[in-house]
Amino acid sequence: MREDAALVLFSGGQDSATCLAWALERFAHVETIGFDYGQRHHVEMVVRGVFRDRIAREFPGWAPRLGPDHGLSLDALRAVSDTALTRETEIAMQADGLPNTFVPGRNLLFLTFAATLAYRRGLKHLVAGVCETDYSGYPDCRDDTLKALQVAINLGMERRFVLHTPLMWRDKAATWALAERLGGTALVEAIREDTHSCYLGDRAHRHPWGYGCGTCPACELRQRGWDAWRAAHV
Ligand code: ZN
Are the CB atoms for 112 and 155 separated by under 8 Å? Predict the structure, then answer.
């Protein structure tokens, strides 16, 4: 197992793109994994490659560290999920206070599959862009969930993986600030232009913070974070 190698769960959104830069700054070898589980819009899977190519082109210090990308199809997750992320339905809040975009246990599955791949590839570090501070309250993004999962994976696979969550206590404004610290204006530009967060898959409307419908919960979160960061910046 390589002590200096990491696998980043890279969805193509702002958070995981920032985590990819964070990992490239720290580890000598970084691979990425993305999951296709029948998201309503395929935009995320497309921008992943565009963003990786841009990193390789514009960041010569990081380029030699960037290893292969692994795409994994999780049709089974689509089969058992019935949420606004996987079918055409309006995004709304449920009675339990969670948005209907919640796919139960999604991150548990993603991280377990990522660990299975990391085991095979000999990568010690797993990096996920989950966040407890500024998110929709998904219970599988919480710090305790991730810590428990690290223990379960290490026991179940008899390895010593380290699960990193650099954004756990950062809000979206702090995530933009982290991106700038890691890769300067060039990285901020790459994230604005070539990552995607909008639940509706809108790439037609360009805002200061990137592409999106501007009104879904993911767009609102991204916009609020951008505005707060810009306000603190000047
Ligand atoms: Zn949107």
Answer: no
Taking the centre of ligand 1 as the mean of its atom positions, its distance from the CA of residue 17, in whole angstroms, is 18
Structure tokens that stand for 126 in this block = 């797993």
What is the Cα–Cα distance from 124 to 6, expressed in whole angstroms?
6
Q: How far is the CA of 66 from the centre of ligand 1 (A)?
A: 30
- Give the C-alpha separation, 190 to 43, whole Å: 16
Residues 27, 43: Cα–Cα separation, whole Å: 28
pLDDT tens-digit series, residues 193-224? 999 989 888 999 999 999 999 998 889 999 99
pTM of the model: 0.91
How big is the chain by its Cα radius of gyration, in Å?
17
Look at strands 206-207 and 210-211 and give their pairing.
Answer: antiparallel
Q: Where are the domains of the chain?
A: 2-197
CATH class, 2-197 region:
alpha beta
